[in-house]
Task: inverse folding
């Protein structure tokens, strides 16, 4: 008999209760139990960043986080990033505008990390963006386009924030 536990999460603004084994990762809970396959399973060792999601607004690697560790917390995945009417988040729009992807496998993790990078205030220069995005690998080498997209989105979000003040 396998021990099971009920984990309560807020996923993309929706309350979820999952009956899972305690060893289930947040990545597997999202993909296999909730059908949210936008978060990618890359290396499963926390080295590629493909599984980046936000937990209470902080970026985390879902492959290294047990679902039970997120008990009662708000989890945002790539599926929950767009606005309520489907409008793209400025980072998503910038990735499209700058062709900041090739095969696209790393793109959800790159975008989630970029949103956090900007929110954390680490998008002041290309060098800073590269440093704070360094945990997200792109096998295709789209890095120059990714940095340009993050820079553009950071400028747009800063302008939106200033206009709102």
Result:
């Amino acid at each position: 008999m396998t021990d099971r536990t009920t984990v309560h999460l807020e996923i993309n603004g929706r309350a979820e209760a999952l009956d899972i084994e305690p060893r289930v990762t947040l990545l597997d809970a999202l993909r296999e139990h909730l059908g949210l396959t936008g978060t990618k399973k890359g290396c499963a060792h926390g080295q590629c960043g493909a599984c980046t999601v936000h937990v209470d607004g902080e970026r985390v690697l879902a492959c290294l986080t047990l679902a039970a560790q997120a008990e009662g917390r708000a989890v945002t995945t790539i599926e929950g990033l767009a606005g309520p009417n489907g409008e793209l988040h400025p980072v998503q729009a910038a990735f499209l505008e700058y062709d900041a992807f090739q095969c696209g496998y790393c793109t959800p993790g790159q975008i989630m990390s970029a949103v956090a990078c900007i929110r954390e205030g680490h998008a002041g220069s290309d060098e800073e963006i590269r440093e704070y995005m360094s945990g997200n690998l792109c096998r295709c080498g789209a890095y120059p386009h990714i940095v340009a997209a993050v820079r553009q989105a950071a400028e747009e979000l800063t302008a939106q924030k200033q206009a709102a003040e």
User: Anything to note?
Assistant: Helices lie at 26-33, 90-97, 107-119, 126-132, 143-164. The radius of gyration is 16 Å.
